[in-house]
Design brief:
426 residues; alpha+beta; 2 domains; disordered C terminus
Amino acid sequence: MPISYERKMIGEGIALTEITDQKFKSNYINISFVTPVDAVNAPLNSLVTEILACANAKLPTLIEISKQLGYLYGATLATRSRRVGDIQENGLSIEYICDEFTINKEVISDKAVDILLDCLFDPLLENGLFCEKYVSMRKKELEDNILAELNDKFGYSTRRAKEIVYKGEPASISMLGTVDNARSITSQQLIQRYEALKRSACIEVVMCGRSFDSVRERIVTRLLNLEREKTVDFKYKSFSPLKDKTEYKYESQDVNQSKMVMAFKSSFDDVYIAKVFAAVLGGTPTSKLFANVREKMSLCYYCSAAYADMKGTLVVSSGVAKENIGKAEKAVLQQLEAVKNGDFTEEELENAKIYLCTGFKSNNDSIYRMAEYYIVQNYRETSYSPEQVCNIFMNVTKQQVIDCARSFGYDSFYVLQPETEVSEDE
């Protein structure tokens, strides 16, 4: 049977998406709070959802939640946090086996969904605040994650590059905040933020799997009982403006290999043509950057391009020896210019399309990947199946790729390098 997709608004700022595919034997349900990113609330949003996953009023410990999930054939409760351009999503999900595949067709779907809903909307409270034990535990985890990002040079360089590329935009804000901020967060701040999310955050419900007839009304009723205010109107897509002049930023730390990030921006509005362009330039093992900058010229340990369609930004990331930074930047710009001039073959274009199609078709392979795929479709306000997207890819022409490439301007350059001086040539 074909995949069924439906999305509708069921309340003030509350959207319900159903993706049905009979090949799956389990259901995946995700409920997320969606808000614009801001520096104060970003870490609070993440902390709140992490605390909600620890316990609820009916199952007041992690052990009891884990035990109940075990009784439900190993159902899985998980947190979900992500940033999409200038927007943040934080929520909980549950995956459970469908009732028709349990022993004697035992009905477990209601119990599984109730755990999800109780964690989200009937949390464990002590004197009107979240349980201090779980607050302390999750704050310590947040602090550890901040320190881990600082010690992970690839993650650190990625975050620092975003601060340069998206300067002055919400996309530049760290989702984790600082160690000092993490330590200063109070239980009062967390409960206030939780109440604000329930009242005024957009709520996205995504159900993916075999059938939801037994739980749909349960979920909708619980959501419509929330006291809601008018939600903030926003769009996921918010193209980042191109800087008047390319901004260069060098940073030195105790690293062995330089991390180089180059960002290019455009207002080109066809995401699928842009993805083909990015794949031709640096998204595949046969791309211009891989074949030339990495393999032929041996200037990078790795060199790849990725397109952030919600920000209209192409990011080229490379691992480079310090003495090759200047040469590598020049080589990347030469390969981009080559694509702009149509200096690529039909075979290179075909290989890029096939590579993209292989990746998109693999979204059909797991219930989680399928749910994530259609969540992204929601971001784009489209409802294409993976097969339809592949058909779009295969019909992209060489001239369309050239036109897309020509629309990109050089916005930012960031490098994290070993602690030695940078010469004028570099």
